[in-house]
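Pilot study result, target chain (202 residues):
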Amino acid sequence: MDSDEWDERYSGAEYQWKMAPNQFVAAQLADLTGDRALDLAAGEGRNAVWLAERGWRVTAVDFSRVGLEKGRKLAASRGVAGIDWVVADLRDYRPAAGAFDLVLIAYLHCEPSLRADVLGRAASALAPGGTLFVIGHDLANLSEGTGGPQDPAVLYTAESLRAELPGLSVLRAEQVRRTVGDATAIDILLWGVRASSAGQGG
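Predicted structure:
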């Protein structure tokens, strides 16, 4: 889908995925501390707003102007400041190197070459000791789960994520299950950390 299609999808009054943060983002990142966070493919901003509520200075990037405008409204309704809303296509967006303590990528599904580029830039954007957190639909969801993209090329596996992040210490890369009504979706969760100083890695 291109930006016009996402603008149309986000054009309704309701939020596509409600206004609460993704359950894995909330569960895994609640105790993480830091200053600057980058939310790539931020959509309607629910995760960015949640992070800002916890004191992060957030840069929220998405190619849907409509989605980010809803994010601004959500932030305003909660009295949340500290979010820089950036309308940009991830094909072109270049975050500042070493600038962020957290980079979040939630449910970004695109062709493998673009995904590898985005992941590489995300890793480079981390400050020493910074965290990369990725959550998305796992390939196994096609046969064992529900919902999500139906093109296997845009889905994640732990092996593919590890291969696209050779410079990071990957602490977790595993399937997680999410309840969707009466069914279960299978996602992949990755937690990676940039070495805290030169000469350290994993």
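One observation from the pilot: The chain has one domain: 3-193. A full batch analysis is planned for the follow-on phase.
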